[in-house]
Structure formats: C-alpha cells, structure tokens
Design goal:
Layout (H helix, E strand, L loop, with lengths): L1 H15 L9 E7 L2 E6 L10 E4 L2 E5 H4 L8 H6 L4 E4 L2 E4 L6 E4 L5 E2 L1 H9 L6 E7 L12 E6 L8 E12 L3 E13 L2 E22 L2 E2 L2 E2 L1 E24 L5 E24 L9 E23 L4 E21 L8 E22 L4 E22 L2 E2 L5 E19 L4 E18 L2 E22 L2 E12 L10 E3 L4 E4 L7 E12 L3 E11 L2 E7 L6 E7 L2 E15 L3 E16 L7 E19 L3 E11 L2 E3 L2 E3 L2 E12 L4 E8 L9 E5 L2 E8 L4 E10 L11 E2 L7
C-alpha cells in the first residue's frame, strides 16, 4: 500500500516544485475557462508556454510558435502545429480520422482545396491563436476533430489604416509567382477590410505505370509513361465589415469570391503486349488529353453575437464549374475510340442558417442549445461523345436536393479547480433526393444521433489529462454520385459511384499535457462505411477502373508524442512521433474482398536556429519520415521530406525577406504497388514538390489582422 501513497506524494512535490512558496501578493493564470492557478509575484525567469489547455482545447500561441520561422501565410502556419503534417498538399492531424478547419469559430462552406487556397492567400501575421479540438462542441456547427484559427482584431477606439503587401517568386519545374494585399480601416468599433490575392500555379506531372492484368485467361504486359502540365491562375477576394456595440454585441457581414481558369494537358505513351515473354502482338498507343475550363464561387455570410450568449447567422454560397475534355488516341485501333469529347457543368446553391444559445448558470454550470438547417440544390451535367456519337454511359443530367436539420443540447460544468466536463448530444435529420431523366429517387433519408464529450482533470499546471469522445458523418461529393465516366487514357478511366453511402466516424482520444509543452496522445478511430477511391483491373474488358467504394470499416489506433526541446537561445526544436495500427476491411470489392492491417509510423522534426541578432537572421530546418502504409489492396511506399529556410527581419520589424527550399529531395510521394489476388501493378510518381521560394513582406500602419470567416464547399467540384 506504500507505493500508491509514494506516487501521489511525488506528484504533489513535482507539481509544487514549479513555483516558490511565498506570502507575497499573487496573480493568476487561466488553465481553462473555470480553473485558475495562483502565481507568486516573484518568479524565476522561464519559457513562455506555446501551448495552453483552455476549456478542453489545445491552444497554441501562434506569434510565439512561428516567431522567426520562414512562414508567409496561414497555410504555412498550420504546418508548424505539432502533429500537423502536409503530404501532397493535404494537411492531416495525427490521432484523428479527419479534421474540419474553422475561422474564428465559424464553419466553412468551401471544399478543402478552396479553404487551403484562401489560407494560402491570408498573411501569417493575421493569426493570433490556433485551437486544436479533438471533439468540437456542437455550437461550432461541426462534429469530430476541428482546428480553429483565431484572427487578431485591429486596434479598437482609434482611427487607423493598416495593411500588408507581399510577393513570392516560386521555382518548381516551372517558374511561378503570387502576390497579395490587405487593407484594414478601424474607427470606434467599426472595422472594414479587403483582401486580394493572385497566384499562378503550374504543375508538372509524371507517372510511370506497369500493369499486368489477367483478361480472358491471358496475362497482359502494359507499360505507361504519363506526362502532363497543369496551370491554375487563381484570384481570391474578400471584403468584410463589422461593428461592435458598446454593450459588446457584435454584427458582421462578409463576401468571399474565388475565380479560377484551369488547363490540364496530359500525354500518355502506352505499350501493350499479350505476355511478358512474347514480343508478338505488341501495340503502341499515344493519348493526348486536355481538360480546361473556369470555375467561380461567391459566398455571403452574416453573423450576430450578443452579449447575453445568443449567436445567430447564416450564409449563402453559389458555385459554378464548367469544363471541356478533348482526347485523342493514335493510331486508330479496332474497339478503341479515336476521339473522345465531352462538356460538363456543375452548379451548386447552398444556404444555411443557425441559432445557438449559451447560458451561464449558478455553481459553474453552462447550458448550450441550438440548431442549424441547410438546403442544397446541385445540378450536374455531362455530354460525352465518342467519334462523334453520343456516349450514353458517360452522359447524364442529374439534379440533387439535400435538406439537413440539426438540433443539439449540451452542458459544461467545473466541479472544482481540477475536474471539468463538457458533453452534448446532437440529432440530425437528413434527406437527399436525385432526379435524372425524369426519374426521381431518394438516396438517403434518416435520423442520426451524435454524442460528444470532453473531460479534463488538472492535477496541477504541470500535469493535465483530457479525454475526448466524438462522432460524425461524412458525405460523398455531389458529382461522384452521378453515373459519370472520365477517360484518363486508352487504358484507364474513373467512374462515378451512384450507390455510395455516407460513412460514420467514432473517435476517442486521451491527451496528457506535461509542463504545458509535452503532449502525449492515445487514440482510437472507427469508421463504418468508410469510402475512398481504388483501382481495379477489370475482368470483363482490358482496362483499369478507378472508383470510390464503401468499406465495411476502417479502424486505426495509435500513440502520438510531441517533445519540444531547446539548446540555450540558439536551437529550438520539436520532435513528433506517431505510431498507428491501421485495419481496412471491405467485403464487396468486386470479386476480391479484403481484410488488411499494417503498422504505420511517422517521425517529424522541426528545428529553429538563431544565426545572428544584428542582422536578425534565423534558420529553420524541418523534415519528416513515414513508413510503408496501405490503402485497400494497394501498398504505399515510404516517404520523407527535408525543407529549410532563412528569414531576415529588418526595418524595425516591418519588413521580412524569406528564402526557403521545400522538399529538397522531391521525395514526398509514395510508390504504389498492388499484388493481391490476381491484381498486379506498380506506379512510380515523380512529384513536382521540390520548390525554391523567395518572399518579401512589408507591413504598414501598425498592421493587425481582422477576423475572417470561411466557407464550406467540401462536396463541390467535378473532380473525381
């Protein structure tokens, strides 16, 4: 019985050792919204904590986290969050099955790509804090894990113009550039801001594919070399106004617009023969495939926040995408179309309203309740022709209507200075109908319930324990639910998935925060009906079909460690270790069901090095390594990334020159191998991610950032 007592005594002594006992007047610091820790007036100098725990959230102090780092925009700021990793322009958070990005607590209406485009156009200096929520409360109008970017306000009570301009030259395989400008005016509670950004992105694509399909009891040998060039000139504009009343009510309105004109040309050289040892019956096919067209998005948001806990608002989004495809196969072969031409269009209209209420009750109780409703109408059109004849298989006119209504009730309670609980339950009614060729059918109609909980226990500021529970649902994109066919080349095509079902997510994580800087996370995620795209070598015809499928489930469990360390004032580093055991099972994948598991590990290291104070020069060297992984029947190779950058700050901190090299070894994309029950292929992708960036930033007028909200079009777009 002595060991537990000794352990408890050691913990108490360790907690107390962080502070000197004194009878002097003390101040307090918040650990969460209802827990305060007394501090003595006289303390030994120490490190400022980059991370705090506040009301069940991990709150990162961004100015402190990215100080002297070579970051220029909000997207690059997110990559500096410990546990956040970028791979092939996709951000993921260790320990989660997916994450929603919020701006000042507001859900977005943008697709992931559109959200990232806006963040890349937003100055890094506009972000004050980033909150990591492994189980977001329902008053955020989201479920599951969320990353909330909090933007700083301009000076209040003064008449001030503020701004920032920047420009970046970027050298990948092709040269490209971007620029942006922000201007803010504030006067006695009224603020107005406008932001414009332009970037002209160009991407080189190269893939080498080897396929050995079995067709009519004959093994074929197919080799492909695919080369491509894509160009995405993009305009982002945002204008917003806000007024803060003397009683602390606040009303705001904003407009966001995005305009893109894309051109993507891919050329494929393919060699086909009947078996690997026979040089007879060899066919060579060249495919020239160009897809181009504009897209535009408009979004209007209104929001009102009262001083007594009421939050009401709404937004409306209009999205339109047009594209044409012109594809030519040469030479002409029997059974192979010479020309494929198509035109497609997607139009989405989406409106959402919400109302939430919070009551501060006696004895540290808080009551939250509210709801939101969304109506979406999407129109999807495709007209496809093969050698001048209508391709009925790839032509359609579909209209989808979707209605969802959510209600929630929840509470939070601090039982004492150490123990607090936040919990809620949400109900969602959803119905989706589709009308095609005058035939209407119901895709989904159901009522679902989603529990949520965050439980925190503060042993002392040095030791904090949190348990998070969440559930969510993920819906397919509007376009993928249509019977569409997109031809990649003479051998491969992408098909739509009209029978695809939404997936559920159940997530649990336990977080332990030591000394307000070391983080240990154990997690378990379970996703029934998880869906993703996979390739299959057809047994009915000589082609590979890429299509999205529902799995029976996807399950992963693991541990994440965040370990910061420093060497005097010269080196400041963060090491992140993540070990994950992944299982994927699908019983309905054509004629080859699978149930596969694998360990997947990630190591990340971020180093900030002070070169000199005068001039103010800082060096950042970062990188990661991932072990081999799986996706369905595919085996993914290991990847790594090494990046470095130098930041020179001058003109009293108003100007910055940043030179940065990303993915110096061009090694962030895995090889893809398939060798499973007769499916045999290999794909080597040469990424276009090695980058040299030169950026210049200048701030004027005491630039501080205005709040910004984003938009949700997570299911828009005709890409597959």
């Amino acid at each position: 019985m002595k060991k537990p007592a000794s352990t408890a005594l050691a913990l108490i002594l360790f907690c107390a050792s962080g502070y000197t006992q004194t009878s002097l007047k003390t101040d307090s610091i918040p650990v969460n919204d209802s827990t305060w820790i007394a501090l003595p007036e006289v303390m030994v100098k120490g490190e400022r904590p980059v991370i705090k725990v506040e009301d069940g959230k991990l709150n990162y102090n961004i100015p402190l986290l990215v100080k002297d780092k070579p970051v220029t925009n909000a997207y690059e700021v997110l990559k500096e969050i410990p546990g956040m990793m970028e791979q092939n322009d996709v951000l993921s958070l260790a320990g989660t099955s997916g994450v929603t990005f919020l701006i000042n607590g507001q859900k977005t209406n943008l697709t992931y790509e559109q959200i990232m485009s806006v963040l890349k156009s937003t100055p890094a200096s506009r972000i004050g804090n980033v909150e990591i929520m492994y189980s977001a409360p329902p008053q955020y109008n989201v479920r599951g894990a969320a990353v909330n970017l909090l933007f700083t306000d301009p000076s209040v009570g003064t008449d001030m113009w503020q701004g920032e301009i920047s420009g970046t030259f970027e050298q990948k395989y092709y040269s490209q550039g971007s620029g942006r400008a922000n201007l803010i005016f504030s006067n006695n509670g009224f603020t107005a801001d406008i932001m414009y950004a332009y970037n002209n992105t160009q991407v080189r694509m190269k893939e080498e594919m080897l396929s050995y399909p079995l067709f009519k009891e004959q093994r074929y040998d197919i080799k492909q070399l695919n080369l491509g060039h894509a160009q995405f000139p993009n305009h982002n504009i945002r204008a917003a106004i806000e007024y803060g009343f003397k009683n602390k009510d606040k009303i705001s309105a904003s407009y966001t617009g995005q305009y893109t004109d894309t051109e993507n040309r891919r050329m494929s050289d393919m060699t086909l023969r009947k078996n690997k040892s026979d040089n007879n019956d060899v066919y060579k096919i060249f495919t020239d495939n160009t897809v181009k067209g504009p897209s535009k998005l408009h979004n209007i948001q209104l929001d009102y926040q009262s001083h007594f806990g009421l939050n009401v608002g709404g937004n409306y989004t209009y999205y339109n995408d047009n594209s044409t495809q012109d594809m030519e196969n040469t030479p002409q072969l029997e059974g192979l179309p010479h020309f494929i031409n198509s035109e497609s269009e997607q139009e989405v209209k989406k409106a959402m309203v919400y109302i939430n209420m919070t009551h501060d009750l006696a004895h540290n109780w808080n009551l939250n309740y509210g709801g939101n409703a969304t109506y979406t109408h999407s129109r999807n059109i495709s007209s496809s022709y093969m050698d001048g004849n209508v391709d009925d298989e790839a032509s359609f006119l579909g209209k989808q209507q979707e209605m969802t209504a959510n209600l929630f009730v929840g509470f939070s309670k601090s039982f004492n200075d150490k123990f607090s609980v936040q919990a809620s339950v949400s109900s969602e009614y959803y119905k989706t109908t589709e009308k095609e060729r005058n035939i209407e059918k119901t895709l989904w109609k159901d009522i679902a319930f989603f529990p949520n909980a965050n439980i925190s226990y503060v042993f002392c500021p040095e030791h904090i324990l949190q348990l998070s529970l969440s559930s969510d649902k993920q819906y397919p994109s509007y376009w993928i639910l249509n019977p569409t066919v997109y031809h990649i080349n003479a051998y491969s095509e992408i098909q739509g998935s009209p029978d695809l079902q939404p997936s559920r997510k159940y997530n649990t994580s336990l977080q332990y925060i030591l000394k307000q800087k070391y983080v240990f996370i154990a997690y378990f995620n379970y996703q029934p009906d998880y869906f993703t795209q996979m390739g299959y070598q057809s047994s009915d015809e000589l082609k590979t079909v890429f299509k999205q499928f529902n799995f029976k489930y996807k399950r992963d469990m693991g541990i994440t460690l965040v370990i910061p360390f420093r060497v005097k004032e010269i080196l400041n580093s963060t090491l992140v270790l993540n070990g994950n055991y992944l299982t994927e099972r699908c019983d309905d994948f054509y004629d080859i069901p699978f149930n596969r598991s694998k360990w997947f590990n990630v190591v990340q290291l971020n180093n900030d090095i002070k070169i000199s104070t005068k001039p103010d020069l800082k060096l950042n060297v970062s990188g990661y390594y991932t072990t081999k992984a799986i996706q369905g029947i595919m085996d993914l190779g290991s990847t790594y990334n090494v990046s470095a950058g130098v930041t020179w700050t001058f003109d009293k901190g108003r100007a910055k020159l940043i030179i940065k090299g990303n993915d110096l070894f061009n090694s962030t994309t895995p090889t893809v191998n398939t060798n499973y029950k007769g499916q045999l292929s290999r794909m080597n992708i040469t990424p276009d991610s090695r980058t040299l960036n030169i950026s210049f930033i200048y701030r004027f007028g005491g630039f501080k950032e205005k709040e910004k909200k984003e938009i949700d079009t997570s299911r828009f777009g005709s890409s597959m």
